[in-house]
Write a structure and sequence with these properties.
Blueprint (H helix, E strand, L loop, with lengths): L7 H7 L7 H37 L4 H12 L2 H7 L8 H34 L2 H6 L5 H14 L18 H28 L2 H9 L2 H7 L4 H43 L4 H4 L5 H33 L6 H10 L2 H16 L4 H19 L6 H4 L17 H24 L6
Length: 425
């Protein structure tokens, strides 16, 4: 028993060490590690808040027009569902709070969920929790554990279990088996969000067509013209929603590419490549799986939005929403290629580059919606060039260019990955 339990002298010496409470040690370690990423997102959110406060003065030529426009926006049901309660948006503080809280809360929640998953489940699966939990025990606890083990020994136990070999025939299927819960969660979130906002498409279009600012211009218009105006407002609202879908799919890609790098860094891939599976085959399977998921997310987003909008007779067709969903996957495909290129050239920066490009695109898109930003700077955003379908027709030349650049970057990164860290004899 002395080989298991710590002696009183050892416990007394341990009490004089620097870190007497292991919980504080863990809190300090996690806090320092996440501080840098949190600081970057904090800077992005701060600039976004400042941008919205500045936009309050530039939203109209004078105070009267600004008040009229904001009053019209306050009655829009779609904007309420998208960004939150619109009460008080006619003041600077209320407008800034309305524009900033909803968006930043969504982005911060996604980042917090990913950070918590990495800290908890990621550290446990990597085996680092065991090092932290393997602390000294006491004689009483050791004796109690031994007695509990002797008592449990009289109960029958199974020393064998039925094998579970499903989806182990290839590295791609194995990756799908290990990440299916995450993939289903992302796709389910896409479907739920599209259904929710699709159900508000018609009411948003009606609010747009019957707003006070437009009523004086539409008094003499026919019923058909008003319907067209309502449909235009519905399409604009749908375009904003699909912009959010673009960012959501890009977030999945950044997470998936970061997981590929983590599997390599932790040595998990070594168990596969030491056999008949090449590094190229392993990486191609992971990239192909991510590409399939991002395309599925776009299609499901478009179909789900159409289902909800059609139930309200919003006037949007299945084909235009399906094409809008496919169009929304283009920035994520380009981000995937850039992520693979980074993995092949500078693997330590893979997650930083992917999440950094997403944060940069999000920041520039928000800034560009309120103030005039230099077009050379806006060109660096992955979201800037993509058409906001179905508000406008998808520009397939841009989508094709994104796919071509992303595919070229992925091929170059894959070629470099197969040769990186290898030495010839």
């Amino acid at each position: 028993m002395t080989s298991i339990a710590a002696s009183p002298a050892a416990r007394a010496g341990a009490g004089r060490t620097r870190y007497r409470l292991p919980q504080l040690t863990m809190a300090r370690f996690v806090g320092v590690r996440t501080m840098r990423t949190g600081a970057v997102w904090g800077l992005v959110f701060g600039l976004y808040v400042y941008d919205n406060a500045y936009a309050f003065d530039t939203i109209a030529r004078n105070g009267a027009l600004r008040h009229q426009l904001l009053t019209t926006m306050a009655s829009n049901a779609g904007l309420k569902a998208l960004l939150g309660d619109t009460r008080g948006i006619t003041s600077r503080g209320g407008f800034t709070d309305w524009r900033a809280i909803g968006v930043t809360a969504l982005v911060a929640s996604i980042w917090g969920l990913l950070a918590a998953t990495r800290t908890l489940r990621g550290e446990e699966s990597a085996g680092r929790w065991e090092l932290f939990l393997a602390a000294a025990t006491t004689q009483r606890r050791a004796a109690a554990g031994a007695l509990a083990g002797l008592g449990a020994g009289v109960l029958a136990d199974k020393d064998t279990a039925a094998p579970r070999t499903a989806m182990l025939g290839s590295p791609t299927l194995f990756a799908l088996r290990m990440s299916r819960a995450v993939i289903i969660s992302w796709l389910l979130a896409t479907v739920v969000a599209a259904l929710l906002y699709g159900s508000l498409a018609k009411s948003t279009g009606q609010a747009f067509a019957s707003s006070g600012a437009l009523r004086k211009f539409t008094r003499d218009l026919t019923h058909v013209a008003l319907q067209q105006l309502q449909l235009a407002g519905t399409r604009v609202f749908a375009g904003i929603i699909f912009l959010i879908l673009m960012a959501l799919i890009m977030a999945y890609v950044a997470s998936a590419v970061g997981k590929v790098r983590e599997d390599e860094a932790e040595g998990y891939v070594d168990n596969l490549v030491v056999r008949s599976i090449s590094r190229q085959r392993w990486l191609s399977g992971r990239v192909g799986l991510t590409l399939a998921v991002l395309l599925a997310a776009g299609v499901l987003g478009g179909v789900s939005f159409w289902v909800a909008a059609a139930s309200q007779h919003a006037g949007l067709t299945f084909s235009e929403l399906l094409l809008a969903g496919i169009n929304s996957a283009a920035p994520a495909a380009l981000l995937l290629g850039i992520g693979v290129l980074t993995l092949g050239l500078v693997p330590r920066l893979t997650s930083i580059v992917c999440w950094g490009l997403l944060a940069w695109a999000f920041l520039l898109d928000m800034l560009g919606s309120a103030i005039k930003v230099n077009h050379w700077l806006m060109d660096t955003s992955l979201l800037y060039h993509v058409a906001l379908a179905p508000a406008v027709s998808p520009d397939w030349r841009i989508a094709g260019t994104y796919l071509a650049i992303g595919g070229t970057a992925a091929l170059l990164g894959g070629w470099r990955f197969t040769r990186r860290d290898l030495q010839s004899s």
